[in-house]
Amino acid sequence: MALAGKIFKALKQTRDKISEAFDLVRKEKVSIESLDQLEETLILADIGIDTVEKALDVIKNNKKNNFIQEVENYLISVLPENINDEEYFSKPMVILMVGVNGTGKTTSCAKLAKYYKTQGKKVLMIAADTYRAAAVDQLKVWSNRLNVEMIYNESSNQPSSVLFDGLTAAKSQKSDIIIVDTAGRLQTSKNLMSELEKMYRLAKKNFSSFNINSLITIDASLGQNSLIQAKDFNSIINLDGAILTKMDGTAKGGIVFPLYNESNISVKFIGTGEDLNDLHKFNRNEYIQSILGINNTA
Ligand SMILES: Nc1nc2c(ncn2[C@@H]2O[C@H](COP(=O)(O)OP(=O)(O)OP(=O)(O)O)[C@@H](O)[C@H]2O)c(=O)[nH]1
Ligand SMILES: [Mg+2]
To answer: Beta strand 267-271 with 279-281: parallel, antiparallel or unpaired?
Structure first.
């Protein structure tokens, strides 16, 4: 199946409800009741109240036109353009994978390793989750399967020191992409958040030959709570973007909008399953068409 098909498929639950509400609006010729129904559906999909209100205005102003097309154009206009990968590669890139427990960091590290390895990049993974006993083993399984080297230190309980060793190795090995798995932490845990800030600072300060990026994993099914997580992480380590995980199991696929509007965090990748291939570069047109039900490519 084509990639576009996979994203379209993963967004089915979100799309089914939205396209049903749009159908009603069309059938009832933009009645107040049908607009109320659509509004509720869009809000339940986590699209965010500001975007929803404006989308409804677009419909009211285009009653006689192809209003779904107009809504599509509006939604495209509020998200950032897709970023060209090339801009990352002026320097070797470090990706610090951060986020709340269980949101998909380790799995996303492995998926990204595969994504970049497939592009011919020299990838190194660093297992810097020193909290959970099985964390290193979990990443090791992926690293073996992918045949990608992994730096770890099972006897260390200092994630910063594992990170330092890993980045030193990456420098001498001339890695292109260095993917760092970190421990899950709640945004409210002061100690763990300050530890993360220390790791980020250490990398920025000592490894200026690398482009240091941080990506947060956001579990799409968690809804509004994810926004708070993202804002709090962003205030500590200046996030470069998000990976929206578990998109396959939720009808709440709209979080991309408030993430960008309210926190200025753009989604870079979408996770659509537990397998290595279930990671897709975020493409705003494809995403919007997939939630509205336009241009079915599946
Ligand atoms: N369906 C689905 N499951 C996912 C996705 N990403 C991760 N998972 C699953 O979510 C669970 C947690 O994933 P991990 O990668 O271990 O999460 P983590 O953030 O590293 O967890 P901690 O290290 O404990 O904080 C695993 O069972 C994964 O297989 C996804 O995109 N879709
Ligand atoms: Mg993990």
So the answer is: antiparallel
